[in-house]
Amino acid sequence: MKIRGALALQKRQVLIFVVLLGLSRAGNINWIFLGNLARDLGLKVDELSSREARVVSDDNKKYLHLDLLNGDLLLNEKLDQEELCGSTEPCVLHFQVVLENALQFFQVELHVKDLNDHSPTFLDNEILIKISEGTAIGTTFLLESAQDLDVGSNSLQNYTISPNSHFYIKIPDSGDRKIYPELVLDRALDYEVEAEVRLTLTALDGGSPPRSGTTLVLIKVLDINDNALEFPQSLYEVQVPEDRPLGSWIVTISAKDLDARNDRKISYTFFHASEDICKTFEINPMFGEVNLRSPLDFEAIQSYTINIQSTDGGGSFRKMHPSS
């Protein structure tokens, strides 16, 4: 703890830095020792009682306990950085130590440091991709990204794919600091030689040691499908008033497949969609219509960027990025 000197009735600043797993516990196993407040404030222990010292939090939650018998400041439970602050850094909880007689205040900041206590996880245990044997080398395929509740250096940092002779992983610069894996075809597929390829996709975080999560990538090799899907435009920009009624149409996405036999099998889905996007919009998988699912709030979110993937009956696809 660090303390800056001040006159009575003025505020002092007390900074407490917490590394949750590195804290020692006090005699009572339910308490986590932070420091001796009496010593750090330059007070005698009996002054805490005589001056009716107490700890007050901004949200009235009692995370801290002041032991008036010895002056120890204690934490009554382990804190979860993700639960308290989400992805916000630094994660700071604000408290006050109040001395009633004579009245004096001390500001306390409790800095909660993230621990690498979450492993990356995939929503699905298996990712199915259908790829034509005629697909050109260098073609990329978007893969579902993993989720990691940790933040900063403990968050998701990299992806790897199990050794194989056809594919490698590329992580493009997304511009939003998020890590999206792409599967790149490095050697041509041959349906007659190998109709199915199984790979293990591994997501790694930046902890020490790193945590990881895996999912199966199942690639179905399809007989020749000469034409990939194409969109008439790669970007749709739509302005929507926040009072648009629920169920309202937003935009229609339409892809074209020159392989006539696959034209009626084109399907549309959201890709890399956040929880906010899934709650707010829905897409008709057959016709590509994006509709409003829940109310818009301009003050909360001013814009959405939605990735939409179209897939044809032969398994080839192209992605586009409409925004609303």
Automatic annotation (TrEMBL):
Per the record, membrane topology reads: Single-pass membrane protein
- List UniProt keywords, sorted A-Z: Calcium, Cell adhesion, Glycoprotein, Membrane, Transmembrane, Transmembrane helix
Keyword hit for DNA-binding: no
Q: Which domain of life is it from?
A: Eukaryota
Which compartment or compartments is the protein found in? Membrane
Signal peptide stretch: none
SMART domains per the UniProt record, alphabetical: CA
Q: Note one Pfam family from the annotation.
A: Cadherin
Domain Cadherin residues, every copy:
123-234, 232-314
**Which InterPro entries does this UniProt record tie to the protein?**
Cadherin-like_dom (IPR002126), Cadherin-like_sf (IPR015919), Cadherin_N (IPR013164), Protocadherin/Cadherin-CA (IPR050174)
Principal cellular location given in the protein's record: membrane
Q: What is this protein called?
A: Protocadherin beta-14
